[in-house]
Amino acid sequence: MNMKPEVNAARLLASVADFAAIGATPAGGVNRQALGVEDRVARRLLAERALARGFSVFQDEIANLFIRREGRDASLPPLLIGSHLDSQPNGGRFDGALGTLSAFEALEALADAGVETDHAVEVVAFTNEEGSRYAPGCMGSMAFAGAGALAEWQSIHATDGPVLAEELATTLAALPEAKMRPIGHAISAFVELHIEQGPILEREDVPIGVVTAVQGTKWLEVTFSGKAAHAGTTPLEFRKDPMSAAVAAIASLQSAIMPTDPDARLTVGRIAAEPGSINVIPNSVTFTVDIRHPDAATLAVIERHVRDECEAASARWDCELAIKQRVDMPPGRFAQSIVEAIENSCERLGLKSRRMVSGAFHDALFVNRVAPTAMIFVPCRDGISHNEAEFVADHHMISGARVLLDVVERLGAN
Ligand code: HGY
Ligand code: MN
Ligand code: MN
Ligand code: MN
């Protein structure tokens, strides 16, 4: 007899707490960077819980982890839900994990109620969404959508050293119970639940965001190279100082359209000098630039401005310039059918919702290229994320999971 599946709130909250303990940091966040030890512990815990429920577990060659609950008709492509388990080095307990664990809760709720969906339902934890340890981000979902470059990525070194190929092999080997499957199988649709990571929902007191699009992102890695020399004996006019060039370039970056365009975002997140000694004029300085905008043409204008300013600084300070593009994610618009399915579920559950564009990139941005996709956002306190203070109230987690479960029931039916 089919009961109405219900989210088991206590189980979901306990699950979020269990995963928050994996890579937990003293300040209450998580450091569970892609393909590292803690990432492997989290994957194992999820896989073990899945096997214990009789679900099947798969991974592909970029270690995307899939958990499958069979449907009535195996000839139908599965409905895919989920997010990621990897985090920023100073990550919050909810970014990625909440979406993945809410998706797993939906599978458990269906199983508890004995509800059979026509489509199989699969939960995915995509590999390396964050891109902080290994750039680019969204490696797993990019590969799943046929936009990856796995062969090229294998030789990338992590910010803490290990080459991706080794960490990937270790991660795959750590889950022998997971059956291997080719990258990029057909799916009927994808729905990703995620924290908003911004302040809008909380400020408007709206419990659910229905994400209609994701803005574009570009990551540049800028290196100025000069000549290492003695800090004390080298007069200014004899210097080829890459730090002066970098500081001048960075100071000028915000001068383009940022002040007049409220949608433009530019962040210099990392800077490093080689050899990095207090009394040596650096040999080279490398910094990262993260540029975002909802409009692809404007994103290109901002990138051009960044390159122009770096070229000007390179000439002014007589230093070599090299710019590597690490990420180029065009903006993406989600499927109207999935957006409306999420809105209809909110209505059925009596939950207020509002449409919005995501400022953060997500795995859904890439899966959107191969299947109808959209996202569910829940509010996070003060809009804080990529920060150990990230926080989501219990009732918002539960509402989000209830919407996801209702959407799964509807989309799982043929
Ligand atoms: O950077 C991003 O937008 C994502 O949250 N990793
Ligand atoms: Mn995320
Ligand atoms: Mn993130
Ligand atoms: Mn994401």
Task: Describe it.
GO terms for molecular function: hydrolase activity. The chain is an alpha/beta fold and 414 residues long. The protein has 12 helices and 17 strands. The chain folds into 2 domains: 9-215 and 331-412, Aminopeptidase (3-Layer(aba) Sandwich); 216-329, Alpha-Beta Plaits. Helix content is 34%, strand content 22%. Strands 1, 2, 3, 4, 5, 6, 7, 15, 16 and 17 form a 10-stranded mixed β-sheet that branches. Strands 8, 10, 11, 13 and 14 form a 5-stranded antiparallel β-sheet that branches. The protein has a two-stranded antiparallel sheet with strand order 9-12. A hairpin with a 5-residue loop joins strand 1 and strand 2 (65-69). Helix 10 (336-348) packs across helix 12. The mean pLDDT is 97.
Name given to the CATH architecture of the largest domain: 3-Layer(aba) Sandwich
- How many strands? 17
Q: Considering DSSP H and I runs of 4 or more, what fraction of the residues is helical?
A: 25-40%
Q: What radius of gyration results from the CA coordinates? A: 23 Å
Number of domains: 2
The pLDDT mean sits at: 97
Number of helices: 12
| CATH C-level label of the largest domain | Alpha Beta
Small molecules (ligands, ions, cofactors) in the structure: (2S)-amino(hydroxy)ethanoic acid, manganese (II) ion
Q: Let me know the CATH homologous superfamily of the largest domain.
A: Zn peptidases
Q: Give the overall shape, derived from the CA principal axes.
A: globular
Q: Structural class of the helices, strands and pairings?
A: alpha/beta
SSE string: HHEEEHEHHHEEHEEEHEEEEHEEHEHEH
What proportion of the residues form beta strands (DSSP E)? 15-25%
**Runs with pLDDT <50, length 5+?**
none
**The CATH topology of the largest domain is what?**
Aminopeptidase
